[in-house]
Every structure is written in C-alpha cells, then in structure tokens.
Amino acid sequence: MTDWLKICTLDEIPQLGSRVVESRHGRIALFRTDGDEVFALEDRCPHKGGHLSQGIVCGKHVTCPMHGWNIALQEGRAVAPDEGGTVTFPAKVEAGVVFIRV
C-alpha cells in the first residue's frame, strides 16, 4: 500500500515557484501555481537534465532554465515541438498541508 507523505505547508512553496525535496527516488520538485495547485515532478528536464525547480512557472507549465523547454506540470511531458517527459508524482493539498505519493 502506498501512503501519502506530508511534505510541508502550502505557504512553504512560493506562488509561481517551487520547493525541492529529497527522496529515495531522487530530487522531487513541488510547483505551486497562481491558483494554489501543487504538482510534483522529478527535478530533471528530459532534455539535458537541468533542474526544473530553478525554472519559471507560468500557468500549468514550467520552463527549464537551461534551454527553455516547457514542461506540462500535470503530465510531465514536454510541449511540442520538444519531446520527452519526466516522472510525475501524485500531489494534494489538504487543510493547507501538501502531501505527495511516491
């Protein structure tokens, strides 16, 4: 059975920003949209491995800081014409607390 892991409060992730957590699966970047949705992705761009957590969040996408690839936060897929994707993890917010499932 997979359990939800308590990570932080929503306020500990900047709006339109990110927070990184280390796990047995590697670095996981938590992104917060301007609508307070939270998404969890492997902190690695599928292009050249750049840290997505250092990118810019716009809508439900993050732009990799290395070469400008746009990654959809929900699916972890690169936006065309780019190809590839990164691992996503289920995330939820309950009573202002962020949880992920790995």
Entry keywords:
Rieske Iron-sulfur Protein, 3-stranded antiparallel sheet, mainly beta, 4-stranded antiparallel sheet, globular, 0% helix, 10 strands, 102 residues
Describe the protein's architecture and organization.
This protein has 102 residues and is mostly beta strands. The chain has one domain (4-101): Rieske Iron-sulfur Protein. It has strands at residues 4-9, 17-23, 26-32, 38-42, 56-58, 61-63, 70-72, 88-89, 91-94, 97-101. It has a four-stranded antiparallel sheet, with no helix packed on it. The chain has a three-stranded antiparallel sheet with strand order 1-10-9, with no helix packed on it. The protein is globular, with a radius of gyration of 13 Å.
Number of helices: 0
- Percent strand: 35-45%
Strand order of the largest sheet: 2-3-4-8
- Roughly how much helix do the residues carry, as a percent range? under 10%
Average pLDDT for all residues: 95
In quaternary terms, these chains amount to single chain
- Count of beta strands: 10
Question: Strand-and-helix sequence, N→C?
Answer: EEEEEEEEEE
What's a quick, concise take on this entry?
The protein is an all-beta fold and 102 residues long. Helices cover 0% and strands 44% of the residues.
List the helices and strands and how they pair.
Elements: E1 4-9, E2 17-23, E3 26-32, E4 38-42, E5 56-58, E6 61-63, E7 70-72, E8 88-89, E9 91-94, E10 97-101
Antiparallel strand pairs: 1-10, 2-3, 3-4, 4-8, 5-6, 6-7, 9-10
